[in-house]
Each structure stands twice: as C-alpha cells, then as structure tokens.
C-alpha cells in the first residue's frame, strides 16, 4: 500500500509540475518580454536549487517584473509539490476542503447560513439531521440562495445563484441538477464599500495565513482583494475576475491583475491607479483570519476567502488547504512568504 501511495504521489507531482510549465508558456506567449533574463537570477537560483536542483527560473523571471527582484519569490511548481504537502499533510485535506464540514469546524456564526446540505446523496438540515421530505420551505430574508459543490469546487466552479421564487425548493430537482455533495446557503449582502468594485459578485479578501514552524504563532504574510467581472456572480480569477494587492494596513494596490499577469489600472469602471481605497475594518479582518486558522490545527498554510457583510463584519466563505495559488500574491504584493521564507526553507532542509 505504501508503494502504491508513493507512486500516486509521484504521478500527481509530475502532473502538477507539467501544469505549471504549461502555465509559464501561456504567460510568456501572452507577454514575451517576461521571458527575458531578469536581474539577480543567479542569486535566486543559488537559493532555491539548494532545495531542488531541478527548479526552473520561470517563477522568478515572471514575478520579479511585478514585485521587484526579490530572491524569496516562490517557484510555483515547488510550492505545489513540496512546500504545500510539507506544511499541510494530505491525509487531512479532504476533511478541511469539504464545505459541508465548515459548520462543525468553525461554528455557524461566522459563515453564511446553511439551508440544506447534500452529503453522499442524502439530505441533511443545517444542524446535520437527516431530511427525507421532497420539498423544503425557505424561511430566509434573502431573495436568493447559493448552491455550491461541497467538494471539488475550486475557482468558483459549479457555484450557482438561484432566486428564492415561491419560497419552496424541490429537492429531487436540485439533486438532478447538482448531483451529490453540495450545500445550499443564504446569499449574504456585502458591505457597500466592497460593492462599489462590482455589485453582482461578493468581492472577497483572500488572506494567506501561516502557522510558524518556529513559534506556532499564526501570522499573515499576504492578502489580496478579489473582484468579479461585471455581471458575474463569482470573483474568481479563472472566471474572469481580477485581483489587487492589499498592504498590511488595508490599502489597495494601484493596479488590478488577472491570472496571466495582464495589468489594468481600471476594472469594471473603477480606477485604482488614482485612488486610495482602503478595506473597512481591516484590522478585524486580520484578527478574524487568525481565529479561523487557530481552528485548523492539522495545517499551517491556509488561503481564506473572507467577505464583509453589510455591517462590516467578516464572514468566512472559503478555506483552501490545497491549491494555494501563490501567484495571486506574487503578481501584486511580493514573495508569498515574505520574511518567513528562510524559516520555511530551514525546516525543509532539516527534512531532506
């Protein structure tokens, strides 16, 4: 069994590396200037090849054009195949990635209200009691509901917003449309300040949390704002959305970026280049992120998607324990781990 697991992981890592090599080619095709040699490439290679002699220069060559010549810039393929599994043991990924478990792990107060959930084909109420009726009457104030996969729903895939209609849900029809393992939640209205960036999507703050290998303290090395494209329900970059950096005190960066590195000063008619946008209640957002991370003891590296409700209170939308997407931060803010990079490298070296 151990040999089979090792083979599976080797195949997975091979495919992950190939996917990043393919992404680099697409980025270069989109912007050929990024392929030119960058300053301090030799220093970057010296640092990272001490961990893996096969590391390629592409991540540094691309991201140094956005955030400067920082030798702490993460090689994406190495982060996905080595750093993430090191910090977040894979045997626990499924549990923390299942949105139907969020109410149990984090409590209901910080999440959108659950209306009904489907787990392996069976319906359960918000408090996990089996529900056998075919019709569910809605008793919510919101005019719409959100249906999303509870597993394997990355990048906003499969998320659908539905109008409440007459207030009843036909659960058989829902199962025919969405299959198994999904969750139905009440739509939350976002803070007016966040709505100005796009009022059709809930625009979330992606907060990176890292539980220090040296101190076990949860810190926040990075955060970005994700904004959906006009008319879209989701804010994911792979669904047409864009993102911008957030400073330590909540101030937004001066440009938006997409997943291929295309930069825009304006998006959805909003000019970021000449504005001093600042996330409301940002200190509370950071405290909230740390509180969430404190409940995920099996994993040290999280990417949390947090919204601000109408009153400015943070609500947890998503917890990512795999598929960290370091490129979001390295296009906009700087190296993903920043001042904690050498700490992570040091512990990786001990494990070699």
From TrEMBL:
Q: Which domain of life is it from?
A: Bacteria
Q: Which InterPro entries match?
A: RimK-rel_E_lig_ATP-grasp (IPR039523)
Domain named Alpha-L-glutamate ligase-related protein ATP-grasp: residues: 84-337
Q: What is this protein called?
A: Alpha-L-glutamate ligase-related protein ATP-grasp domain-containing protein
Originating species: Bacteroides muris
